[in-house]
Amino acid sequence: MARVVVDVMPKAEILDPQGQAIVGALPRLGFAGISDVRQGKRFELEVGDDVDDATLESIAETFLANTVIEEWKVTRL
């Protein structure tokens, strides 16, 4: 078995309201110097050794990410 991580983030040109809420709250909580936050999703998958990269990419693109507004990256650990 192998562990695979799929990181999904909003595309740069897409407004990230959750990230903006976080960046707005940080100074009120005493954290200065943060100018931008982008919030995404992280998926950890346990996969068999016979699962190839093309299958993982297909899972990420068709099931885990909305490719209209999100980018994704698959990393084998």
UniProtKB/TrEMBL annotation:
Family designation: Belongs to the PurS family.
Keyword Ligase in record: yes
Subcellular location field: Cytoplasm
TM spans (from-to): none
Pathway assigned in UniProt: Purine metabolism; IMP biosynthesis via de novo pathway; 5-amino-1-(5-phospho-D-ribosyl)imidazole from N(2)-formyl-N(1)-(5-phospho-D-ribosyl)glycinamide: step 1/2
Keyword tags: ATP-binding, Cytoplasm, Ligase, Nucleotide-binding, Purine biosynthesis
GO molecular function, one term: ATP binding
EC numbers on record: 6.3.5.3
Subunit and partners: Part of the FGAM synthase complex composed of 1 PurL, 1 PurQ and 2 PurS subunits.
Pfam families linked to this entry: PurS
Organism whose genome encodes this protein: Rhodococcoides kroppenstedtii
InterPro entries for the chain: PurS (IPR003850), PurS-like_sf (IPR036604)
Function of the molecule: Part of the phosphoribosylformylglycinamidine synthase complex involved in the purines biosynthetic pathway. Catalyzes the ATP-dependent conversion of formylglycinamide ribonucleotide (FGAR) and glutamine to yield formylglycinamidine ribonucleotide (FGAM) and glutamate. The FGAM synthase complex is composed of three subunits. PurQ produces an ammonia molecule by converting glutamine to glutamate. PurL transfers the ammonia molecule to FGAR to form FGAM in an ATP-dependent manner.
SUPFAM superfamilies attached to this UniProt entry: PurS-like
Chemical reaction(s) catalysed: N(2)-formyl-N(1)-(5-phospho-beta-D-ribosyl)glycinamide + L-glutamine + ATP + H2O = 2-formamido-N(1)-(5-O-phospho-beta-D-ribosyl)acetamidine + L-glutamate + ADP + phosphate + H(+)
Any one cellular-component term (Gene Ontology): cytoplasm
Gene Ontology biological process terms in this record: 'de novo' IMP biosynthetic process
Protein name: Phosphoribosylformylglycinamidine synthase subunit PurS
